[in-house]
Amino acid sequence: MRAWRALSHLFPDRKAAMQREHRLTEAYVNVFQGHPSKEDQDLVLINLAQQAGWSMVSPPEASDQTLRHHNGKRYLFAQIWARLSLSDDDRMAIENAARREAVMAEEFAQEGM
Hints:
With about 110 residues, the chain is mainly α.
């Protein structure tokens, strides 16, 4: 199983928010317009999973509109996910990395970063 790199591993310092955003933007550009490295691919896939709320559950009090919105994001990522040829170990590693990224994003939001 290969190591899946996440921004939280590359830039663990909370003060490195601009570096994280720059690196993520660079990874997206490389994936969609250039010659991506494995790290670029890892970062984009993990970010997409995190942004889609792939491993998140909507709260019971969520409105119908919120549920449809969240389900739509997860459905879009599911279309990408279903087309990838990954081992079960890699799939689990990506899901774990996406959860770590979501926790980091929530911590930053609470700190006002």
